[in-house]
């Protein structure tokens, strides 16, 4: 079933006309209501009338996370605060928090796009959704919450953490859908095993996972351990929160709600558009947001876009599962390294736990990459040569993939810190 068939199955030309109309309206609003954008456009010699349709999108300036920080907290808002009914914000762990605002209409739009995502995932009115994303300033919890209520599903707003209680409520309340980060889903599976809870005896059938990059191998691991269908949902607070895009049951790319968010992919170095089907940095322009309508926001996420119609019938542009982030990319001895490459190697081997940590250091001017990998505790009671053989095997596989030498350290279960939100995969100790 499709929540909004008129939009989700719209023809390409009709969608372009709708996007063009909304883009023109948005550009005019930010030009006259947001001094930051008026100044940026004037520096480029642009006036609102120069933007006729989405073919003119490339003329517009980019927006970055730093721009939101520089305009902290409300200077990018396009409406007076009297019209803003809610704000969310980032944690600010890497700098000044980024603050986003919503009018009442923005909240309705948010619920609508999340409702589309849930329907695409196979979630319906009779489902019981356990939302284990954090509530509060983070957009994950409340974003899923109102979309779930819009389709009429039953919401368990448990938020993140309290793992044993999560599992207990899954049993007692009959949760059919789990929404959280993929790394926390694996943590829950691990905790179930320790508690003697068999996932097959639960009612869970679908997982809605996002808020961090994850690989196809991790999807298989989750589906095998929890006996559910694992669906990828994508969103970011600066654009609206969860609901920007989501997979359907075909699991063949994430359908972007492009009547609200125009997607582009650009080369992260030249900022020039890359052809459809090629990997580039994902950029969004929010064309219906009232409070915070960002132009060409650089997400730093790396993916490719496809416009071919999906087998499910939707015509919305699809984005591939994110390959990683341009700002998560490690450059080690001149080689680009993404944590997702190492995750794929480890999970494909199937001889380790799905928990790993990359530690990068610089010794005598040489970059060193050490990969910590958890293995079953029984390995440490076996003969030492078995540990050495597995270490050598992992080292060979990773070095074959990356093309650089690495150190591998096998560690006991629970050595690597578990988190209730986004997993920490990298510690970079280099003083650069």
Q: What would the average pLDDT be, to the nearest integer?
A: 93
Q: Kindly, what is the distance between the CA atoms of the first and last residues, rounded to a whole number of angstroms?
A: 52 Å
What structural class do you assign from the helix and strand content? alpha/beta
Strand content: 15-25%
Helix content: 25-40%
Largest sheet: 9 strands, mixed
Number of strands: 21
Radius of gyration: 22 Å
Number of continuous helical runs = 11
Report the uncertain regions: none
* C-alpha geometry: globular
Major sheet: arrangement of strands = 4-3-5-6-7-8-9-14-13
Pfam families: AMP-binding, AMP-binding_C_2
Catalytic activity: 2-phenylacetate + ATP + CoA = phenylacetyl-CoA + AMP + diphosphate
GO molecular function: ligase activity
Family: Belongs to the phenylacetyl-CoA ligase family.
Q: How would you explain this protein's 3D organization?
A:
Keywords: Ligase, Nucleotide-binding. The N and C termini lie far apart (52 Å). Helix 9 crosses helix 10. With 432 residues, this protein is an alpha/beta fold. The protein contains eleven helices and 21 strands. Helices cover 32% and strands 23% of the residues. The strands form five sheets. Strands 4-3-5-6-7-8-9-14-13 form a nine-stranded mixed beta sheet, with helices on both faces. Helix 6 links the parallel strand 3 and strand 4.
